[in-house]
């Protein structure tokens, strides 16, 4: 199945190509943690992970046509 | 005393007399400083029913026991008075260099009472106090005023002042210090203006006396070592892109307020994000006294029509003047921010009021001939022009100067104002961040995120993440963050460092690190329970003021569009904010009645009865 991935800030360096927004083909079933492993993102840097706009744990299964966003540490206001 | 100076300055503007009095040690311990001492003196000397812009309303400026001590971000002071925008308390605070100098000049607290017949400023030179004529400064903007005051007092003095907006009593006028830092919210600048008090100028000497300098120094080193280690691999987002870096997070969570709070995502978000600000306009970072983060942005804009130089914008400004008005022009947002700083106005209320006016026009409730120009969504030039007109109360600016609630009410649609207690919200949509809605509704100052900031656990995963879409269990955690904020605000610290580095790493956020700093500084030896209770005392004392002013559950509210209208699109699509359910739990946590009034037994526990 295909998953759209959006990486931001320093996490962009883990994108396989030149663009921080890309598609990844995954075996089914796969979890959020599998994607982090495939992209070799150190877990401490994948500060906030959103699957279809919702917070997702590493164990969360990925469904078809999902969008996965990985955000770095951010604070402010 | 240690940590505290032990002195209060009382300035009677009516009689032009200044007197000093000692700071009572028990009161200092019970209320800590800053926000706590502010509400203690406002309750003692203010009248909750007073007209905020009358001589009857005192205005209190207070530092905390950690202000100026060298504790990281110990740079802040608090302005407490009855707000002309909300009728509630203000709690408007600021950092920079002024608060440290204020304390070193010889006082923990300044209480201004009465009203001067003519414009004056207060000059404190190493403990010597004078009220001086400010006739020649009236009408000058905050930058001109600061330069003139430094020239006529001392070039190393620090200045807090109002601009033309404060003089003209714009209901959300700010007090600016060090030119660019703002005690921004709730109209504290209008209260100064109503008293003909143009500025406070301070020059200090020496160091703040610490009870146990060795213990303080050793703890400080351990905290800073941990902080520096933590940012070795990944620099702190606040340092790299400032607070405006948050746009990326709120957009992706679907909680970036857009089109006057009608939706939570903005197509043009990448044009106004902190990364763009860094790339296009940042000259260098700036930091407040003792701050290892440096989130301030010294910026310069050369784009035609919006040229300028100054500080900002912060995230809140970018939301209020950007996505909220459908404006993706960062140079215009930055220019409007500069105008607010120079004229002395709150950027959040300014942007949110213009956004509200845009919707009133869009829906046909406000004729454009009343505005005197076109006012469509996304009109960057209108943002800049109307901001300046508001500061001068010129034309339609005179109506905008009342804030969004009074404006929308005047045109028959108060429900379109994005406010709680008539104060405009900061930039986090409660439909997709439930606890934020509770924080807005129960904040003592109305719409604010700084009196307990759920964005930390809902969006930033600090100290641990909670699902922002769920309302269950949020009341208890929101109260814990509010208590922590009361302690941070009272100690003289900044939330940006303290929440991450000086509190327990669980959702109870006990102020463990702050405790060690305060005890080493003051020698008081608070227990953790005593310090946490002091935070609860501050919040309950503020609630008492509000209760006496007539506030209750009916005022702990959000507009219907957040509680009844489902989010139309984005990651939070279909959600509403479950405020009522959270409020029931919240009052129980506080031991307040169903109507939001502190119970007598609670007041007794906290020594407030």
Protein model, in words:
The complex is a heterodimer of chains A (77) and B (609). With 77 residues, chain A is mostly beta strands. Chain A has one domain. Chain A has a five-stranded mixed beta sheet with strand order 2-1-5-3-4, with no helix packed on it. The radius of gyration of chain A is 12 Å and the shape is globular. Chain A starts with a strand and ends in a 6-residue tail after the last strand. By secondary structure, chain B is an alpha+beta fold. Chain B has a six-stranded mixed beta sheet with strand order 2-1-6-3-4-5. Chain B has a six-stranded mixed beta sheet with strand order 8-7-12-9-10-11. In chain B, α7 packs antiparallel against α23, α12 runs parallel beside α14 and α19 packs across α21. The longest helix of chain B has 21 residues.
Question: Short description, anyone?
Answer:
The complex is a heterodimer of chains A (77) and B (609). With 77 residues, chain A is mostly beta strands.
Indicate the topology:
The complex is a heterodimer of chains A (77) and B (609).
Chain A lengths: L1 E6 L13 E5 L6 H8 L8 E4 L2 E2 L11 E5 L6
Parallel strand pairs in A: 1-5
Antiparallel strand pairs in A: 1-2, 3-4, 3-5
Chain B lengths: L6 E6 L4 E6 L2 H7 L2 H12 L13 E5 L13 E4 L11 E3 L3 H7 L4 E5 L6 E6 L2 E6 L8 H11 L5 E4 L2 H4 L7 E3 L3 E3 L4 H7 L2 E7 L9 H21 L3 H5 L5 H7 L15 H4 L1 H7 L1 E5 L9 E6 L6 E4 L3 H7 L8 H14 L3 H16 L5 H4 L8 H12 L5 H4 L3 H7 L8 E2 L2 E2 L9 H9 L12 H4 L15 H18 L3 H7 L10 H11 L5 H21 L11 H4 L15 H12 L9 H6 L4
Parallel strand pairs in B: 1-6, 7-12
Antiparallel strand pairs in B: 1-2, 3-4, 3-6, 4-5, 7-8, 9-10, 9-12, 10-11, 13-14, 14-15, 16-17
Helix pairs in contact in B: 1-2, 2-21, 2-24, 7-23, 12-14, 13-16, 14-18, 19-21, 19-26, 21-24, 21-26
């Amino acid at each position: 199945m295909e998953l759209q991935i959006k990486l931001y800030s320093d996490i962009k360096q883990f994108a396989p190509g030149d663009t921080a927004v890309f598609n990844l083909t995954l075996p089914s079933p796969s979890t959020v943690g599998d994607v982090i492993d495939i992209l070799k993102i150190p877990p401490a840097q994948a500060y906030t992970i959103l699957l279809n706009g919702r917070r997702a744990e590493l164990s969360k299964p990925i469904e078809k046509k999902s969008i996965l966003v990985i955000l770095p540490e951010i604070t402010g206001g | 005393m240690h940590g505290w100076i032990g002195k209060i300055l009382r300035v009677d503007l009516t009689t032009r007399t200044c007197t000093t009095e000692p700071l009572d040690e028990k009161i200092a311990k019970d209320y800590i400083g800053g926000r706590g001492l502010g509400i203690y003196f406002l309750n003692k000397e203010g009248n909750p029913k007073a007209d905020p812009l009358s001589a009857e309303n005192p205005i209190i400026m207070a530092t905390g026991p950690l202000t100026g001590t060298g504790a990281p971000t110990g740079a802040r002071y608090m302005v407490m008075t009855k707000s002309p925008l909300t009728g509630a308390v203000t709690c408007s605070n600021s950092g920079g260099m002024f608060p440290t100098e204020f304390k070193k000049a010889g006082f923990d607290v300044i209480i201004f009472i009465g009203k001067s017949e003519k414009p004056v400023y207060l000059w404190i030179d190493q403990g010597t106090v004078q009220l001086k004529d400010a006739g020649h400064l009236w009408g000058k903007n905050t930058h001109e005023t600061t330069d003139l005051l430094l020239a006529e007092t001392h070039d190393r003095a620090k200045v807090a002042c109002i601009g033309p907006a404060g003089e003209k009593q714009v209901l959300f006028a700010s007090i600016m210090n060090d030119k660019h830092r703002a005690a921004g919210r709730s109209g504290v600048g209008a209260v100064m203006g109503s008293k003909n008090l143009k500025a406070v100028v301070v020059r200090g000497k020496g160091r703040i006396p610490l009870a146990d300098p060795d213990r303080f120094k050793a703890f400080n080193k351990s905290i800073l070592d941990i902080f520096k280690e933590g940012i070795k691999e990944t620099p702190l987002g606040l340092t790299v892109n400032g607070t405006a870096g948050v746009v990326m997070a709120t957009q992706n969570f679907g909680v970036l307020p857009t089109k006057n709070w009608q939706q939570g995502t903005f197509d043009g978000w990448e044009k106004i994000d902190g990364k763009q600000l860094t790339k296009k306009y940042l000259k260098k970072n700036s930091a407040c006294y003792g701050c290892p983060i440096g989130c301030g942005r010294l910026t310069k804009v050369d784009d035609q029509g919006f040229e300028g130089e100054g500080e900002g914008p912060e995230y809140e400004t970018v939301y209020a003047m950007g996505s909220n008005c459908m404006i993706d022009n960062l140079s215009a947002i930055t220019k409007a921010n500069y105008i607010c700083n120079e004229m002395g106005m709150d950027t959040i209320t300014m942007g949110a009021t213009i956004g509200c006016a845009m919707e009133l026009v869009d829906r046909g409730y406000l004729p454009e001939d009343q505005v005197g120009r076109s006012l469509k969504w996304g009109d960057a030039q209108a943002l800049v022009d109307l901001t300046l007109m508001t500061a001068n109360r010129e034309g339609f600016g005179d109506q905008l100067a009342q804030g969004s609630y009074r404006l929308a009410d005047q045109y028959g649609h108060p429900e379109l104002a994005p406010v709680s207690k008539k104060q405009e919200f900061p930039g986090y949509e409660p439909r997709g961040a439930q606890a934020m809605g509770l924080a807005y509704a129960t904040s003592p100052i109305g719409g604010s995120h700084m009196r307990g900031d759920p964005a930390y656990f809902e969006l930033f995963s600090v100290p641990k993440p909670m699902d922002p879409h769920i309302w269950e269990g949020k009341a208890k955690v929101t109260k814990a963050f509010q208590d922590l904020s009361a302690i941070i605000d009272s100690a003289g610290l900044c939330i940006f460092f303290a929440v991450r580095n000086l509190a327990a790493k669980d959702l109870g956020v006990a102020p463990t690190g702050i405790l060690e700093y305060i005890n080493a500084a003051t020698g008081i030896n608070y227990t953790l329970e005593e310090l946490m209770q002091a935070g609860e005392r501050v919040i309950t004392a503020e609630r008492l003021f509000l209760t006496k002013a007539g506030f209750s559950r009916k005022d702990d509210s959000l507009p219907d569009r957040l509680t009844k209208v489902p989010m139309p699109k984005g990651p939070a699509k279909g959600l509403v904010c479950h405020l009522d359910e959270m409020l029931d739990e919240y009052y129980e946590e506080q031991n307040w009645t169903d109507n939001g009034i502190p119970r007598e037994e609670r007041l007794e526990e906290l020594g407030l009865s």
